[in-house]
From TrEMBL:
Residues 235-366 form the O-methyltransferase C-terminal domain. InterPro entries: COMT-like (IPR016461), COMT_C (IPR001077), SAM-dependent_MTases_sf (IPR029063), WH-like_DNA-bd_sf (IPR036388), WH_DNA-bd_sf (IPR036390). It comes from the Eukaryota. The keyword Methyltransferase applies. The keyword Methyltransferase applies. This is O-methyltransferase C-terminal domain-containing protein. Keywords: Methyltransferase, S-adenosyl-L-methionine, Transferase. It holds the Pfam family Methyltransf_2. Gene3D superfamilies: Vaccinia Virus protein VP39, Winged helix-like DNA-binding domain superfamily/Winged helix DNA-binding domain. PANTHER family: O-METHYLTRANSFERASE CICE (PTHR43712:SF2), PUTATIVE (AFU_ORTHOLOGUE AFUA_4G14580)-RELATED (PTHR43712).
Amino acid sequence: MATEKNPVQELEQLQDLINSSLDIVKKNITENGDPPLTLKTVEPHPIYSRNDPHLAQALRTVSSSAQMLRALLDPNTFLNDITYGYHDETALLVACQADVPNLIGDTDRHVDEIAAQAGLNPDKLGRFLRNLCNSYIFEETAPNKFANNALSARFKPEGKRAIVGHCADEARVSSCKSWEALTFPEYKDSTEANKAPFNIAYNTPLTYFQYVATERPDIGIRAKKAMAGKGFNLGQYLSLYPWESQKGAKIVDVGGGIGAATFPILQANPDLRLTVQDIPDTGPEFQKNLEQNFPEISKAGRAEFIELDFFKSAPIKGADIYFLRHVIHDWPDAEAIKILSGCASSMSAQSKLLICEHVVCPTYRSADENSTAEKGSSSEARFVAPEPLLANWGDAPTSRLDLQVYTCLNAKQRTKLEYQALVEQAGLELVKVWRNLGDETILECRLR
Ligand SMILES: C[S@@+](CC[C@H](N)C(=O)[O-])C[C@H]1O[C@@H](n2cnc3c(N)ncnc32)[C@H](O)[C@@H]1O
């Protein structure tokens, strides 16, 4: 007998997923005696930094289900949202350039006052702010009066506004040239770092990093602040790797920028020491970040900066851990292998190389490719989203970052198998994949 099809099966599956996951969220908030979960307050809610895998899974399930539900129930609106969505990014750029979150402060203010302080036309500014209110960024409290809320208040620190500037300005201008880069004969099959959409947009033969260092230090410095400002779920990030068991270890953060990825690790683990190595113009911003934001690490002399061009020389020898976060994704294979080989030449048999990146997982279900952990790992199942969601939970942050590094540097995010092949060409072996439900993965490598 043929099984009868349930015409609302996907809806029911989504309904169950949302209900059961929201129950977990509500229970967690109640049991922890948390403040109300609402967009109306400006304080970040503790639920977002709680390191609880069960809760992380519930939160991710709700947001992936909500995304699918919107696509399923109202396709036109959903697609129009994507088509016209660039205005949201522009509106955010306007609000950040004008520093509206800090101009508003802790009370609601009329757009005439905000615009006067920003030197802008009030009617035009108000229209951009209203667009953001539709995405729950700012709250319109009365005609033409705006207040901060949980989301807009996140843009008060400079680093948070810098990431919007970096993405909505030079990266987006470059992204608009993607079609040309995909079709121009000298660009389409190139793997050179200076054959990216960025090079067409800025009409330069220099790579993004060369160009911002020599021609536009203003956007170069903003991009470094942006790395620190992008922010991550700190609890999830710190729990990716057992830092607490690396007693007294010396970490060399290669291409470590202003220390955005490693200062939080040092702050949570007081016996770790750090050397950040990066191109010379990064030094002053590193020092500023260290002294202003991590004074206790600075006073204890636990962190230093040493200049390095990783294409010309290897990082310093003798470290326990070499750390590469969001560096390999900036480069095509040939350059990535050079950087990894440099690290390998400085490593001893005891050193580890930790590559911290977003790892690409497919949207379809495949036992092999959805897995970023070792085969047979019992914890693997929770990394694959439940039906009817896409197997990778609709991992937009990873594919957006993939397109971002293509846009700026003709580079790519990679799958676990691609990383494995890459590190082997540099004389290294991938020994373990550390993962949780956050965006980042750590690939632990040793000398072969
Ligand atoms: C995407 S940022 C990542 C920064 C940092 N690892 C983090 O996660 O915040 C890439 C870094 O690579 C550095 N970089 C680029 N070219 C370099 C080179 N030739 N030698 C050393 N560092 C370089 C940049 O200055 C930048 O700080």
